[in-house]
User: What shape does this take?
Amino acid sequence: MLRLIKVSGDSLSPRYREGDFVLVAKIPLLFNRLKQGDTIVFKHPNYGTMIKKVDYLDKDHDQIYVIGTHDFSVDSREFGPISKKTLIGKVIWHLHQPVPKDKIGSR
Amino acid sequence: MIYEFVEKLDNKVHFEEADAHCDIPCGIYDPITAQIAALTVVRMIDLMNDLDKTHSERDLEYQNSMSRYIAVKEEHAEKVKHEIRVIWGDYIKPQHMEKHPEFHELVHKIMQLGSKSRQTANRETGVQLVEAVNQFAEAFWDTKGISIKHAKAPYAPALEMVYPNL
Assistant: This one.
């Protein structure tokens, strides 16, 4: 029901960065508690396990349109909506990678 | 503190990774530009034939119009080749090839028909170019899980086209 997953890639930067960890729960999905803006982890048939934000919930077809926050994100704009069946869970806790001391103030 | 602990744990047990996949291409790919360019090739051949039939004198007007049609045919046949090459080179991935192994052969066929459309004024070649680009569009939309519909282009030459069923 709970999974700890490591983030790779930068399509959700600056909020989620490569090396961050997220705790993912399946429980909110069972109670249809998913809403626009939630961050979810799912298994895409071509791209593997991905983390993206919910852009739009298509309740009629049980599909979810996902989007990254980065301009170059590969998401539903490229691969279309994802099936609800592919969901691994909703992100309920986010563990940021500490910013190295020499980088503080340079971002 | 917590991060260091989780990171050490990750080094030992290797948590699953979720990819926030990012790519440099803009992600906007659509074969419609190539389809319209292919239609334009046929349209130019039609206009060339019409002019040839209706304009008996090979005067300056005739030469001017004919030159323009030929120039546009050249440009759009080359545009078809360029647009298809971009989708093929930047968008088509191995997983798409698994589902549609015909992609490579189809792209090669389009390149050949594109060149032939420049070299000749053969309408049949132009029509074959439109059909091949439509086949490409059909496979392309399938890679995105988008169904297609067949409909006649709403302008001359009203050839049957493949459009995404959005």
